[in-house]
Amino acid sequence: MDEKKVNEAQDASADLNSATEEQYPRVTFDEFTPPTYEEWVAAAEALLKGRPFDKVMFTPTYEGITFEPMYTRERTDDILPTDSYPGYADFLRGARPEGYIHHPWGVAQLCDETLPKENNELLKFEVEKGASIYHIGLDSATLRNIPLAETEQIGEGGVNLAVLADMQELIAGLDFAKYPVMMYTGASSLPILALLVAAVRAEGKAVEDLHGVVGANPIGAMTKSGKTFASLDALYDEMAHAARWALTNAPQLRTVFARSEVFSRAGANDVQEVAYTLAMGVAYIRALLQRGFSVKEAASQIEFSFSMGANFFMQIAKLRAVRVVWSNIMEAFGGDEDDQRMVIHARPAYFTKTIYDPYVNMLRNTTQIFSGVVGGIDSFEMAPFDEPIRKGDVFSRRIARNMQIMLQEEFGMLQPIDPAGGSWAVETLTRQMEEKIWDEFRLIEEKGGIVAALQAGYPQEAINEVLEKRFKALELRKDVAVGNNMYPNMTETLLDTREEDQEVLRKARTEAIEAFHSGKAVHSGAYDLAELREAVSGNEVGGLVDAVAEAFTHGAILADVRKALTDEEDAPEEVTALSVHRWTERFEDLRRTTEEFKEKEGKNVTVFLANMGPIPQHKARADFSTGFLQVAAFDVLTNDGFPDVDAAAKAAGESGADAVVICSTDKTYPEIVPELAPKLRAALPEATIFLAGAPPKDLEPVYREAGVQEFISVKANCYQILRTLQQKKGMIE
Q: Among 55, 480, 486, 677, which is least packed, fewest CB within 10 Å?
């Protein structure tokens, strides 16, 4: 870094630093002798009372990185960024020298109302209440450019658009000179961009005011659905047209949106999510270079989007690391420092959200945006807490939006520049993430790039392996999802899904399209599209956007434009699709199965607690077992304990329960279990008999011989035990 840039970076924070030093003088504790790491380990081992230090104090992650119990300066000194400044070099410490002080991160609240007019009202409302980006969600039909007749669900994910009048209604009164626009457009940005351009011109606005991102992610769209509606080469051609048009007519608008959601929602770990998304970005850069773009032009067109997961420090490290890796990639392409600067949008990870106890999603969202801000995002979309259930309402959108505003205006998060910089833990994690991401990215490159890797099935297999590990950790309750695999709320009523009336929406959209065409002299299916078909091959790169915009002006329908742009002989690519998952989906199915069976049959799995002795003797394990079984919404029959085995067996028999859990202490089990278990079996021949607690290896055969079939403990597979009870009851096959 040259001396001028160093001085600029130092000056950017000089006032803040001097004020801090003056107001808060450094305090030293010379009277204390710092302990060595070895001394700290010895003290920790003494407190562990024989439990193994290496197992208890080190936490493995899904990324193959192990969290250490303590990080020290001595062990981190060689990787601290002592010669790095925010906004320069590899951008480890942020994209701008001043952080958020002069340029707050963009508040991009997704507006996903189905009808254009309603979505327009929502866009204006969000900006009025504090959003700083017009973030427009498009429904799946619009993203796929298909007609209403082929649409199963109108409004899935956002607004439905088909003709010029729709876009005009959507953008009416929006100030594009003041606020950037954000639209993910699926496999191609060209048709939607052209529709936007036609509407902007029809409204008498300047297209050069458009800034933000109206971006495509064809590889991501292919990975989500399993195939494309055109070959990738054809989609790259459309990408080039959109990018060239933007460079010429709206230089502050990006047209490529490399989004990681397809990987994140499938259960990928953070290394996989980032490495595969960077590989998509590289594929797009190469595609544009092959179509005559310079490195600078190609770099200026791409924006990235990542999901913020549940592991707080890992998310911070992820964002810091990805900027470094992308900087190195673009340097290898020959890009200068500006070309190496990455634009990052982020949102909370959909994978971590739950349907049961959904208000906990607010807490998850809070940590995820906080890690994003500390990590240095450029914009953030805060999803409503009820995202996995329905479209947000006034309340859930308000909570989501205000989280960002509070962080900016009340919690002072615009002031610190690279707040995690110098943290021994975060710097260590960042370096580890850099190395892991780079290794995985190189592996994809060795396989021929992301498309070849997807066609070979490598990312899909790797992600599925991680997904199964996540599910297994939840089953064993090593990972805790509050309200789902632990601490269920038995009084909970599920939120209303508020399903939209598809017949009403279909009628409204059909009438709107017909009304638009009734005032047009030229119908979309004739002259304009025939001319457009010629323009596909005849236009210079960039000219196709204006040709498509002209077609929309003359009444073209989006689906017909797609047909005109697509060569029927052009073979689309196919890969194994990545399915959308959420980490708690299996436990949600368990509970939903019980609730539906109970509502239909009027019956439930009932579990009798054979609590032995006074309350202090059995309470801990009775409470644990109750929470364990209520995860599947089973009816648990509790009591204050029994003085002897005969009383317990008699009460259990009278209950007619489907299962019995013997609850007491390890000390009393050798005496109680051999006598009680056979009597429980006699009283309830068909019942499953459990013992609360994990038995010693030498006693497990004794307890099983007496009649105990399974053990409920912290080591038990909660999911499998509950599912087995459902099968036995006839809830599932």
A: 55
Distance CA 116, CA 266 (A): 30
Segment 557-595, tens digit of pLDDT: 999 999 989 887 788 899 999 999 999 999 999 999 999
- Cα distance between residue 477 and residue 49, in whole Å: 24
Q: Residue 497: how many CB atoms within 10 A of its CB?
A: 11
DSSP letter at 341? P
Please give the single-letter amino acid code of residue 14: A
632 phi, psi to nearest 5 deg: -100, 15
Q: Which residues contact 77 (CB under 8 A, 6 or more apart)?
A: none
Contacts of 292 (CB under 8 A, 6+ apart): 240, 541
Q: Are 381 and 345 in contact (CB under 8 A)?
A: yes
Inter-residue contact 270 to 308 (CB < 8 Å) = no
* Alpha carbon separation from 34 to 28, 42, 57 (Å, rounded): 12, 14, 21
- With DSSP H G I counted as helix, E B as strand and the rest as coil, what are the percentages for the chain, rounded to 5? 50, 10, 40
φ, ψ for residue 600, nearest 5 deg: -80, -45
**Contact indicator for 148, 493 with CB cutoff of 8 Å:** no
Q: Cα separation of 701 and 710, whole Å?
A: 11
Residue type, 249: N
Distance CA 469, CA 125 (A): 42
Q: How far apart are CA 171 and CA 122, in angstroms?
A: 11
195 contacts: CB under 8 Å, gap ≥ 6: 161, 164, 167, 548, 549, 552, 558
pLDDT in tens, 390-400: 999 999 999 99
Report residue 41 as tokens.
Answer: 């380990």
Residue 26 has pLDDT above 70, yes or no: no
| Amino acid type, 522 | V
Alpha-helical (H) ranges within 250-311 are 261-264, 270-290, 295-299
Each residue's pLDDT tens digit, 213-246: 999 999 999 999 999 999 999 999 999 999 999 9
Regarding beta strands 66-67 and 59-60, do their DSSP bridges make them parallel or antiparallel, or are they unpaired?
antiparallel
Q: Are strands 344-348 and 606-611 parallel, antiparallel or unpaired?
A: unpaired
For 692, the enclosing helix (H) or strand (E) is strand 688-692
- Among residues 362, 374, 378, the alpha carbon closest in space to that of 315 is found at 374
Helices and strands per DSSP (H, E), number in the chain: 31, 16
The whole-angstrom separation of Cα 211 and Cα 307 is 23
- Non-local CB neighbours of 21 within 8 Å, separated by 6+ positions: none
Residue 690 makes CB contacts below 8 A (sequence gap 6+) with 625, 659, 660, 661, 662, 708, 709, 710, 711, 712
Question: Which residues make Cβ contacts (< 8 Å) with residue 14, sequence separation at least 6?
Answer: none
Amino acid at 91: F
Q: Residue 261 burial by CB count (10 A; 0-12/13-18/19+): exposed, middle or buried?
A: buried
Strand order in the sheet with 106-107: 106-107, 379-380, 344-348, 302-308, 253-259, 212-216, 181-184, 134-136, 110-111
State how far the Cα of 484 lies from the Cα of 591, in Å rounded to an integer. 9
Place of tokens 């019956």: 603
pLDDT score of 92 more than 50? yes
| Assigned token pair, 60 | 């493995």
